[in-house]
Design a protein that fits this description.
The chain has helices spanning about 70-100, 155-160, 165-190, 190-195, 290-320, and strands at about 20-30, 40-45, 45-55, 60, 105-115, 120-130, 135-140, 145, 200-210, 210-220, 225-230, 235, 240, 245, 255-260, 270-275, 280-285, 325, 335. By secondary structure, the protein is of the alpha+beta class.
Length: about 350
């Protein structure tokens, strides 16, 4: 799904001792090339598990372990998908009218789900979005809907009427059925969801004058939660920028953390990485490269040395063979290759 159309809701990273089940439902007023008029995507943690769209007309598994679900589940979920599809066609037109819009490209989304931790605590959430902003949300404490856009006031008033009990029904779904389904999925996919893959780490630096921008690329790890930061010896470098934790096609994740520093004598920069797959955190040192000035100097000095060596070698080769001198008896000096009377 294009980042331009994803509902702008940031869901915090799920801790290693918790699991979540989330569904994203998306409808368009005028779907373009490559976009389905309506779609449903389901996730356990950050693993896509099911998908439904107007072209397929059925909800389908996206991971092998979801195939353990009974045939009745797929039939029921497909029927629910068709009902949501019809509802979204109505909702898109309704919300457009609330904004006095008669045409154009618009997107309406619903995100809901639940989270369950090993200590037994549960959390549910439900949000509607329109054109990338939050439209309304469910307060799961009171079981009532809250408008976050002025145009959502009429909708929330209707949904909160005592005779509908819509908020209470959603609250009950999120805190009960959703949790039961999540536990079932976690049990079926535990080997995949809780596998541990060690991160790979690559550090680099870009020099610009006195300032160096350090980069720490951490990739290929699973599960998603990870702690990455730059250190200078024992001190943390507090001024840094980081990307979101992004998924890889193979189900692992990646992240990059960068920091601008002004290295001084004695500084020792390293990238600190802590992940559940590691027995001990990693500390990958950054080694500054030799500056270009020093590289040129070393090349020149090395070149001069090589030239000098070759010149000396040439002179030695041109010099005639030196005769070895020996000291003869009676103090006479003679060349080794000459016959000496005293030698006889």
């Amino acid at each position: 799904m294009s980042p331009l159309i994803v509902l702008l809701i940031y869901v915090s990273a799920v801790c290693s001792d918790s699991h979540s089940l989330r569904y994203f439902k998306t409808g368009f007023s005028a779907p373009g090339a490559g976009l389905h008029e309506f779609s449903i995507v389901g996730y356990v943690d950050d693993r896509e598990i099911v998908n439904y769209n107007t072209d397929s007309g059925r909800i389908r598994p996206k991971v092998q372990w979801m195939e353990k679900m009974e045939a009745e589940y797929w039939e029921a979920e497909t029927q629910i998908g068709k009902e949501w599809e019809a509802l979204f066609r109505h909702n898109v037109r309704t919300v457009m009218s609330l904004f006095n819009q008669t045409g154009g490209f618009h997107v309406y989304q619903v995100m809901y789900g639940c989270e369950w931790t090993d200590d037994g605590s549960i959390t549910g959430y439900y949000q509607d979005g329109y054109d990338g902003g939050e439209f309304l949300a469910l307060d799961t404490q009171t079981g009532t809907f809250v408008a976050t856009m002025a145009q959502a006031q009429i909708t929330t008033q209707r949904w909160n009427r005592p005779d509908t009990h819509k908020g209470e029904r959603y609250k009950n779904f999120l805190e009960n059925y959703c949790i039961v389904l999540l536990k079932k999925h976690v049990e079926d996919g535990r080997e995949d969801l809780e596998r541990r893959v060690r991160p790979q780490v690559k550090v680099s630096g870009q020099e610009k004058g006195d300032v160096t921008k350090l980069h720490c690329q951490v990739y290929g790890f699973h599960p998603r939660p990870v702690d990455v930061k730059w250190m200078n010896g024992e001190d943390e470098v507090h001024s840094y920028e980081t990307t979101h934790i992004l998924p890889n096609p193979d189900g692992t994740y990646q992240i990059r953390v960068s920091a601008e520093v002004t290295p001084k004598d004695g500084d020792r920069y390293s990238c600190y990485v802590d992940h559940s797959s590691l027995e001990e955190p990693l500390n990958i040192m950054w080694e500054p490269k030799m500056s270009s000035v020093w590289v040129i100097a070393v090349v020149i000095i090395g070149g001069v040395g090589i030239v000098g060596f070759l010149l000396c070698e040439c002179k030695l080769r041109r010099r005639p063979p030196r005769q070895l001198i020996t000291v003869q008896p009676m103090g006479q000096v003679a060349a080794e290759n000459q016959s000496s009377p005293a030698a006889h």
